[in-house]
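Forwarding these from the shared drive since the link keeps breaking.
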Amino acid sequence: MRRIIALFAMFGALALLPGCGGGGGGGTVIIHGTKIAFLSDRDGNLEIYVMNADGTGQTRLTNDAGDDDQPVFSPDGTKIAFFSNRDGNNEIYVMDTDGANLLNLTSAGSVEWDPTWSPDGSKIAFSTDRDGNFEVYVMDADGSNLLRLTTNAASDWEPTWSPDGSKIAFATNRDGNFEIYVMNADGSNVTRLTNNTSDERWPAWAR
């Protein structure tokens, strides 16, 4: 289970991500404009809530027996992507910011998590172990045109888009410990950015 805390800015949003991935176990907070999405187990399991920036108007968006985790607003603030184990394994879902029009984007019988929107909102990158180990994939925002970006025997995960959408940074342990790498948005030109004996995780682009 991954227990990492990251604080970063994304598309004008501030995100606090303790316990990301690994099925949650912490509280994800995503701020977009005047709205804040967050996790809460106040009702017995992890669900996604939204509230105004002053704490008023707290509204539960998801309601199921599984855990819903890692909510992230689309760049235009109209959608929220997240992962959930409501169907027995972690899958990527998207819904309107009022919880309506819920759509399962992946259905591979494997683990999918770490959803992240491209800057123009047309694509979602994510991590999955559908091929036996964790790799970074990208798909259209409706779940179509799935494309595998990394191919390695190690774990590649925690993708994040550059502000112009041309690159994706990610964490991988392909060299023995977790380091930060970057690649083009089509998976080409993979480049190692960090090199030490410590674990480097959760890259975040300056906005």
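-- next protein --
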Amino acid sequence: MFRSATHAAALLFATVVSVEAAEVTAGDLTIASPVIVKSFAKARAAGGYMTVANSGDKPDLLLGVSVEGPMAMIHESREEGGIMRMVHLDAVEIPAGETVAFAPGGLHVMIMGLQPDDLPVGDTLDAVLTFDRAGEVAVTFRVEALPVDGPGGGTGHGDAMN
């Protein structure tokens, strides 16, 4: 019993540390829960998600994302004429006093040029987010498994080869 309780406490502590480590603050901005999800194991692209909260009284702009190795761009999934499309964005405004979610089916960081075995579940990818006011902010995206709630797991990055 003692071993089980100790093990449970260790797992709880590891989870709390992991959650806390995923949050980065730079000036008035807080970047939380940066994760990457691949639509299938051998995918050559993946979606990056996070939230960016601006506690300041002035807006900021996310101008770009860089990672070592693959290419990273800011994209938005939009419905146009009944068809979902991914559109490259030059910048995303983070309004003062608001939180912007990079989430499946909307804003996301598109990671492209992956090799088939890149970014297995549990891996991490270091990135630099470049903001107009906050400057360069280092974050670490954690690679998570694809949710199983339908084609593409709701990521907008589904593929018939799943």
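The first strand starts at residue 24 and ends at 26. Residues 2-21 form the longest helix (20 residues).

- D.
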